[in-house]
Amino acid sequence: MWVWFGLSALALIGELASGTFYLLLVALGLAAGGVAAWAGLALGVQLLVCAALTLVGLLALRRTGVLKKREVDAQGNRDVNLDIGQVVEVESWSADGRTRVWYRGAHWDAELAPGHPPRAGAHSIAAVQGTRLVLAPRPHSA
Predict the structure, then answer these.
(1) CA nearest 16: which of 4, 31, 5, 27?
(2) pLDDT grade, residue 140 (50/70/90)?
(3) Angle 2-18/22-38 helices, nearest 10 degrees?
């Protein structure tokens, strides 16, 4: 019986170190196996209780969306990319909506964000796609 609870405690420690919900489910399943052992049930039933509770918990978390990976769009998210929102000066645009700008001590390839007219002047970085900046005109320069 104590083996179940010991393994459950180890799984909880692992959960605290990893920050996922998976080991928490395993710890709950192991604790349920310990309760089944405390109740005097056979080893096969203890294993079944442990596996069943772990799987039911996993299915419940998947249905609620807790385990879904939350992807962040780093190209246009200022919390991820500190270049977003910075101002650059555009001298002129080519016919295909591209230009070169001076930013952070180097020349960068840049393109105009969709839906904006190609005008010279101050532009904000709306996104970073690889080594290319996507620019949108500043409201006061339009």
Answers:
(1) 27
(2) low
(3) 170
8 Å CB contact between 106 and 90: no
The model's pLDDT over 116-126, given as tens digits with 9 standing for 90+, comes to: 889 999 999 99
| Second-level CATH architecture of 87-137 | Beta Barrel (2.40)
Q: How many angstroms separate the CA atoms of 59 and 4, rounded? A: 22
3-class DSSP state of 118: coil
Domain ranges of the chain: 2-64, 87-137
Cβ(134)–Cβ(128) below 8 Å: yes
pLDDT in tens, 59-98: 888 888 776 666 767 777 777 788 899 999 999 999 898 9
